[in-house]
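Box 3.1. Reading complex inputs
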Amino acid sequence: MNTSLNSLYTELVIEHDKRPLHAGLREPFDAEVHHVNPTCGDEITLRLHLSGASEQRRIEDVSYEAIGCAMSRAAASIMADLLLGRTVAEMDPVREHFEAAMGSRGTIDGDEELIGDGVALLGAAKFPARVKCVLMPWKAYQAALVEIQTLGE
Amino acid sequence: MSAPSRPFDVEAIRADFPILDRMMDPDTPMIYLDGGATSQRPRQVIDAEVAYLTRDNAAVKRGAHRMAAAATDAYEGSRKRVADFLGAPSAEEIVFTKNATEALNLVAYCLGNGDASTPAHLRVREGDEILVTEMEHHANLVPWQELARRTGATLRWIPMAEDFTLDLTDLDSLITERTKVVAFTHQSNVLGTINPVSRLVEAARAVGALTVLDAAQSVPHMPVDVASLGVDFVALSGHKMLGPTGIGVLWGRYEHLAALPPFLTGGSMIEVVHLDHSTYAEPPARFEAGTPPISQAVGLAAACDYLDALGMENVAEHERVLTDQALRGLADLDGVRVFGPAAGPGRAGAVSFELEGRHPHDVGQVLDSLGIQARVGHHCAWPLHRRFALHGTTRASFSVHTTTAEVEAFVTGVARTAEFFGSLS
């Protein structure tokens, strides 16, 4: 097996795939979204529960059910672990950096300070077909945020 | 169809496909097992397109200049060639489309576009029924869902049996006096199942229903003679039969084509145009609005020449041997489950499988690292996968240039994939 394969299926990815953190759907929640990757049929249902208002909004819970490949399941696990207990505002740069690095075909190195275990997923950046797998949980999180905002208006 | 004019020599065939020299890594040759998605093209097809583009290129059927005449001859000559390849009684029954998907949409739209002047059997209306199968590719399912939605007709489907063939137990209650269309695939793109065309045609004919055959997966891999199949329409794609992308074919019985209203409208498909109304050309022009895919038609004709020279019987036999080899090899591996009928005459060369506990994307990723280009996912047959409680499968599909050594590498690759993930857990 070649090295690029090992850069994709890192120990951390395999660990998160096997024992995903914060998995399962929980109550209470303010928004629930369901995202599907139509090219492969992978699915994620994600619930988001926030407290506080505007800049101070805090992520009290993020729960999910993910059906998909090792990369997408690990991505959901790592994302949930990053989000929990943090404010929405402080997670924006995290999400932006992660998305930029994933879309860079490997030209942007991941900042571990920002994205933590997320750096273990960046091997997928060199495999265009896998970028979508890894970003799906983050797209679901973003959609849940929008839904909460819309409901609040 | 004509008698084969060259021996079926895989090494000689491989020499015709320049892309097969490609390396995926310095020491990893490319093993292309995704002909079911799109086939590679032999030099003869590429050269035919280049020759047309560098010698005869012009817009067809317009202009008095000699180039226009040369282009028209090339395009209409290709239509004749495709008609011969498919055993169509007349070249006027061959409609060039963008792909098989457009050919199927063409039929579905035309059957919903009629008015009082359209014969009743060519007009789907409220209360009618459209019958499909649970194994269809989305291309032969969604257009019928949409036709049902537009017209108020009801969509029904033939279910799958556990042995990966169609369950025809209740066929008599599924095909009724209300059935207007029976649309089904000749060969499943996932399972390799070859469907019993004559049985379904017989049942459809008994109630006066039209039959529409998705032959995108069969025409590239076995002899198909449209006239003897008994169906009313056949759809296929150029790029799955060693030809170019951007061209597909709809074959239809001339009496149907002559009585159907158009689908896409505009230039080239008209007879007389007034400001407030128009009349339409005879088939096939009626169904070819706008400038058609001309160089692609020339390439498709060259693909027909190429396949005919090999002989479709020989192509089918070659792929049958490879399929048997793959099925035997996978059967020996723990944790591998193949989805498709057992080897035999009802089984063609698409081998889809699941590796226990591993998502197909992950399986495909490891196979790719070994140079093996296999398809992963639901293969545009989502309801079929759902029927077998699958989110996706990994599929190897074989072509004229596939060797027994490549099939062996594929089976070994699946074993190594299982080992790779086993070593990580």
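In summary: The mean pLDDT of chain B is 97.
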